[in-house]
Amino acid sequence: xxxxxxxxxxxxxxxxxxxxxxxxxxxxxLKAALPLAILGLAITGFMLLKATRAVTPPVATQExxxxxxxxxxxxxxxxxxxxxxxxxxxxxxxxxxxxxNADVAKVEIREGQTVxxxxxxxxxxxxxxxxxxxxxEADLQxxxxxxxxxxxxxxxxxxxxxxxxxxxxxxKRAVTRAQNLNNRKMxxxxxLDEALQAxxxxxxxxxxxxxxxxxxxxRLTQLEARRARAKAxxxxxxxxxxxxxxxxPFAGRVVQTPVAPGNRVRSGDLLxxxxxxGELEIRAQIPFRALPAVRAALAMHRSLPAKAIVDxxxxxxxxxxxxxxxxxxxxxxxxxxxxxxxxxxxxxxxVLTLSMDLPLEENVVALPFExxxxxxxxxxxxDARMAALTIERVGEQRNDNGQVQVLVRxxxxxxxxxxxxTQLPNAITGLKVEVQE
Length: 437
Prior knowledge:
This protein is an alpha+beta fold. Helices cover 38% and strands 30% of the residues. The chain has five domains: 3-51; 60-78 and 362-437, conserved putative lor/sdh protein from methanococcus maripaludis s2 fold (Beta Barrel); 80-92 and 276-359, Beta Barrel (Elongation Factor Tu (Ef-tu), domain 3), CATH 2.40.30; 94-121 and 248-274, CATH 2.40.50.100; 128-242. It has a six-stranded antiparallel beta barrel with strand order 4-13-16-15-14-17. A four-stranded antiparallel beta sheet has the order 3-18-22-21, with no helix packed on it. Strand 19 and strand 20 form a beta hairpin.
């Protein structure tokens, strides 16, 4: 019987029950018995439903397994790569300036043009300096003539000197004869005086000629000094004349040409800038953590090659030396690389990414960066669970596909170990994982 049918049945009995009692208590009895009957029926229905319900077996709690990727490792020998950011520099860049004051006649090159050693770059007006050269050559010829005249004069003086000496001897013998004749009263005293006077004149003439001969060396030295000065002035004029033609001191590329035909330039004015293409260098900062290995390699004269790609062209270089100083906020020391191949594709100021090879490392493992947690932690797969390992980060390396991998080392790593290569935010030792094949 349903609760509704029961309720209808009790209501049908109400008049009979009410007739059994006094009318005063009939209404009160009906109000008290009806709720109790409903509550009893509800309890009876609940117990009946509980007794007839379906029995569900308890559900067992299962631990979640995180799906990850893993690779099998084999420690071995590898060459680490160091990724650097460098700037191309031209340490041998030359600033060619005017050595004379002149007008610019021709400018044969333009900015960015490549020239060979000896190529004409700039031509200055040479008319003034051509005239100066002629004047200096004429001055030198004049002095050369004076020297030749002095040599001839000296030869004549030496010849005359011998004659002057012979004449003096003759006049002396004449005086001796005059004295003998005067003693014998054969000539007058005035005749003797004239003979003595001839001797004195001849002696004076001989002294003058001797002075001319003796002074030859000093006069010749003066003339030779004047000739040397005249040669220097002539050579200086010729040098200035050659300076009107400016040629390339080496094979290189022109940086700038701030002059044009018709400009007046003074000594020291900039004519052009040029740098040798084959002498370019790349300056890149090497981190402090890599400096010990780099210094050791340089001390042992080991080559540390580097590669770069510029405008889809390969560039090869090698580390030549380390810089002399570093800034307070720098994270490393500058390394200077000499460009071996591909210098024609570079220009000073160009920024490029450089991959440098470090010395060979033993017993290292190449892993993708996804396997690295923090700076020095990886996870090994052990019985389907993660186990943390502390490693030493040796460097980086690019695989055959061009992907960058990190090289690590740890005495706990062995061949055949499987390293987890999936980044999990909740990674912890003991975490259950499932390898996704």
